[in-house]
From TrEMBL:
SMART domains with a match to the protein in the record: HTH_MARR
GO molecular function, one term: DNA binding
Keywords for this protein: DNA-binding
GO biological process, alphabetically ordered: response to stress
The name this protein goes by in its record: DNA-binding MarR family transcriptional regulator
Protein's organism: Cellulomonas oligotrophica
Amino acid sequence: MDVGQALRALAEASADDVGRLLLHASRAVTGAVLVELHARGYDDVRPSHAAVVAQLDEDGTHMAELARRTGTTRQAVAASVRDLVAGGYVTTAADPADARASIVRLTPRGADLCHAAAGVLHQGTATWGQALDDDGLAHLRSQLARLAAAADTPTVRGS
């Protein structure tokens, strides 16, 4: 098989691939959320930041746990946390039980970001509801939940 045939075969196989469609939809949602957050003054927030903030516990979370939850490396989480600290969204402190470990906590500005993001997500869901109608959106949610439950597969770190 030559290179052209191989590329055409891949293009045909991926044209309506569910995973690719889900990835495209996810990127569209993430992009729309970030555009709106930037318009609301949170112009320093990136997707990697949102992933970290979304995994924080109310009383704070260890960096190692954030890495596990986000499926990324500790170094990647540390870089995002540094940015979030610089933006005033989170603080870090040594864990009193283990000085080698850092706990990341949300600040009031970070809480404001969470409220803004929640509002934007609700608006996006309403838009999808108009495009699909309420029954279509409910069906999509149900099917995506089934897919997520069935896909209990470990992820590759850093992907």
